[in-house]
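idk why but the lab printer keeps eating my pages so im just putting this in chat instead. protein + pyridoxal-5'-phosphate:
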Amino acid sequence: MPRHTVARIDLENLRHNYRRASELAGSARAMAVVKADGYGHGLARVAGALADLTERYAVACLEEAVALRESGLSHPVLLMEGVHEAEDLKLCEAEGFIVAVHDQHQLPWLESSPARPEVWLKVNSGMNRLGFAPADIAAHAMHLRRLGIRVTGAMTHFACADDPASERTLEQTRRFEAATSGIEGLSLSVANSSAHFRDGQPMFEWSRPGIMLYGSSPLLGTQGPDLGLKPVMTLESRLIAVRELAVGEAVGYGEAWRATSPTVMGMVCIGYGDGYPRHAGNGTPVRVRGTRVPLIGRVSMDMLAVDLTEIPGAAAGDPVELWGPHIGIDEVAARAGTISYELLTGVTGRVPRLVRPQS
Ligand SMILES: Cc1ncc(COP(=O)(O)O)c(C=O)c1O
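predcted complex ->
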């Protein structure tokens, strides 16, 4: 017997969002970022739905790239964190995976391996996560090319592009341009989702949209639909109990919410064991019978409580939207002190994904 707690996945909305990214990328081509199981939507499903739109995919690691091949997709795939051992270079060459090289310790692997996969150099333009110093890029490109390695691209990643007021993105772009300007034959790539929305942002040859494909806003304080994006995942459950609380009665663990007036309370069959954030506080909206109502008390592993006082007739069995077209995931994330990326990738395996349209 199913529990009616499901994540509905709308692949038409995914395709709409890809087209939006592509339009914003201008003359650059948008490579679909599908890491972390397609941001929780299902890697093969998401990649398959974009197969005729995107020319290549970007993933974090080799396992994800292999999963794309196993699902029958033959597009080039960029491994944004590169490989983790020299051995993996052979598979990358054989499968047409493009390897990002970001650190000194990876160079001897390329020098000693008989494999010659296509390589992109990662530039540390200021985020200080991965990448070579800008001043060293030309020398690394020349060195690898002398070894017969095809160095075809360079990329960097922005630290603050989600904040439209930040000057950092422009500074990082300038450093990246300076680092790569004298090197022939490189495709350049800088833009994550948020950079697609920055006026005047150079996009170069390839952009790398991730979160925007799934309908969430990449910009601080903005909702996906404000940016022309459509939610791809709707997290849905049902009421499984409705009860009346008298003044002074509390709800759930720690008695974190107490009725100050007579209250009709509903229990919803979803909790942090499904990936709903435990830190979503009192007042986080959910939707029942077309009305936004507030979450009350602490989220449990398998349940959460909502205040149904404003919905006469609400009853066990009523569907509840936790996030989706009416309850923005960006709003839920803000209430829980996190970001939509964490919510989407955190929906657990216990929640069946129901896909529309079915393939
Ligand atoms: C190197 C790199 N490029 C692109 C992306 C896509 O970013 P977003 O999901 O913000 O569009 C990520 C995501 O973390 C990334 O690590």
